[in-house]
């Protein structure tokens, strides 16, 4: 799948210190420090292309973009892979509801997503992979799980025995009752007759009438969602055999902790014998004016609609970064107004030949980002700097700060 265009990243002067990045690992439930590494492997779960790109999507990809940018500022290489679930039940349901071909719906939404990511200046993944183009990888992964005794069939469909991973459940910290409830809410089928365990997850769905299917050694059908991400992550990130973990970061919204990330990690563990991700990093949800933002409530706000109404993409980017990535947070007109004012104020100060001192500002931004992407502190530092400029302080280098904001926050001002 075609990714979107590369984004230029100015370099950060080596006189600045880049402390190792610390992130909240939802597996250990603590903030952990990433080790120093030449190459980091990051997999971020992509969208199912039927309602791109709402602000919840944008907030997630912007958060991992900050991680990507920070690791690059540390002079590390980041192998970043993202998928797109271009065949799955929700896509078929939406296409049927709207009376359009599922393929046409997917194509149009993928193009819109690429265009929104480009406008928001999100660094593109090295590999942007669709489920359909990964069917070969998925079928091989199912074969590996079969060899490990972890696959059984229900009619012509194939299921993964979740308890073939002795660590199953350890990454999501849920009771069995909560697991079953959430599994049913998020696309699982705990009540299907013939399953050995209600939580066992579908890895191959045999072709249904009037639905698409692809030929494979498992018969004609299509992949389950969890095995799709496991197969794409391991197939394209090329794990380092010397590392204790297959990849460094598994990312996505916090609604993916269970079952999606638990299942992918369990399948990776059983098929390779190694732990999947060093860190599981999750972003909070975006609400609207005090309410949850969701498809069912019909109150999704889209990046493309905001831009059409005249909001600059850097203002959207800024508004979504002003609050901490891990929190569930609210979108509002007030937040948008704050971001608009911030962009106007900082643009004005950066356009002057004299500005308040910038060295400590840049260093403090690096320190705050290294601390679990503390963007609230980053914006407080910048607001303080704007005040210092307004008070007539001088001695700073506006070009250097401007380049740092571009490199670290993706704010091209
Ligand atoms: Zn995924």
Walk me through the structure.
The structure is a single chain. By secondary structure, the protein is an alpha/beta fold. The chain has helices spanning 55-73, 89-98, 102-119, 135-147, 176-185, 225-237, 257-272, 303-308, 313-321, 333-350, 359-370, 375-390, 398-409, and strands at residues 22-25, 30-33, 39-44, 77-84, 127-130, 151-154, 157-160, 201-206, 221-223, 245-253, 275-283, 286-288, 291-292, 329-331. Helix 10 (333-350) packs across helix 12 and helix 11 (359-370) packs antiparallel against helix 12. The two termini are 31 Å apart. The model has no long low-confidence stretch (mean pLDDT 97). The structure holds zinc ion.
Features:
binds zinc ion, 413 residues, five-stranded parallel beta sheet, Rossmann fold, four-stranded antiparallel beta sheet, alpha/beta, 17% strand
Strand content: 15-25%
- Class of secondary structure makeup: alpha/beta
Bound molecules: zinc ion
- Overall mean pLDDT stands at 97
User: How is the main sheet built?
Assistant: 5 strands, parallel
Please compute the radius of gyration using only Cα atoms: 22 Å
Q: Report the end-to-end length measured between terminal Cα atoms.
A: 31 Å
The helix content is 40-55%
Indicate the CATH topology of the domain at 22-287: Rossmann fold
User: Number of helical segments?
Assistant: 13
Q: Biggest sheet: strands side by side, in what order?
A: 5-4-3-10-11
CATH class of the domain at 22-287, please? Alpha Beta
Q: H/E order of the elements?
A: EEEHEHHEHEEHEEHEHEEEHHEHHHH
**Count of DSSP strands:** 14
CATH superfamily heading of the domain at 22-287: HUPs
Please name the CATH architecture of the domain at 22-287: 3-Layer(aba) Sandwich
Q: Which shape, going by the Cα principal axes? A: globular
Low-confidence stretches: none
């Amino acid at each position: 799948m075609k990714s979107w265009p590369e984004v230029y990243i100015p370099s950060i002067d080596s006189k600045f210190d880049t402390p190792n990045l610390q992130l909240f690992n939802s597996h250990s439930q603590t903030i952990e420090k990433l080790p120093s590494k030449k190459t980091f492997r990051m997999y971020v779960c992509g969208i199912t292309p039927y309602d791109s790109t709402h602000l919840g999507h944008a907030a997630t990809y912007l958060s991992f973009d900050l991680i990507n940018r920070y690791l690059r500022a540390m002079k590390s290489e980041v192998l970043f892979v993202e998928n797109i679930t271009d065949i799955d039940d929700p896509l078929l349901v939406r296409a049927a509801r709207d009376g359009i071909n599922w393929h046409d719906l997917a194509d149009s939404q993928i193009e819109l997503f690429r265009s929104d990511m480009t406008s928001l200046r999100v660094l593109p993944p090295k590999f942007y992979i669709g489920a359909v183009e990964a069917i070969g990888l998925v079928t091989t992964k199912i074969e590996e799980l079969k060899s490990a005794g972890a696959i059984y069939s229900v009619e012509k469909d194939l299921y993964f025995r979740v308890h073939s991973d002795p660590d199953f459940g350890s990454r999501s910290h849920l009771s069995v009752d909560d697991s079953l409830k959430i599994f049913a809410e998020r696309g699982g089928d705990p009540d299907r007759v013939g399953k050995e365990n209600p939580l066992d997850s579908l890895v191959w769905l045999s072709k249904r009438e009037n639905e698409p299917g692809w030929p494979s050694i498992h018969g004609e059908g299509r992949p389950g969602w969890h095995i799709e991400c496991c197969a794409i992550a391991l197939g394209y990130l090329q794990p380092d055999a010397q590392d204790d973990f297959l990849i460094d970061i598994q990312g996505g919204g916090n609604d993916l902790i269970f079952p999606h990330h638990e299942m992918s990690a369990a399948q990776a563990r059983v098929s390779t014998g190694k732990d999947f991700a060093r860190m599981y990093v999750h972003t909070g949800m975006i609400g609207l004016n005090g309410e949850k933002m969701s498809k069912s409530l019909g109150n999704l706000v889209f990046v493309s609609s905001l831009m059409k109404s005249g909001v600059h993409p850097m203002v959207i980017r800024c508004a979504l970064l002003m609050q901490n990535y891990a929190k569930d947070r609210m979108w509002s007109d007030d937040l948008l107004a704050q971001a608009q004012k911030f962009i106007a104020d900082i643009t004005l100060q950066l356009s002057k030949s004299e500005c308040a001192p910038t060295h400590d500002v840049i260093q403090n931004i690096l320190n705050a980002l290294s601390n679990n992407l503390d963007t609230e502190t980053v914006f407080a530092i910048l607001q303080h700097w704007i005040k210092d400029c307004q008070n007539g302080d001088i001695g700073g280098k506006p070009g250097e700060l401007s380049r740092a904001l571009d490199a670290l926050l993706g704010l091209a001002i």
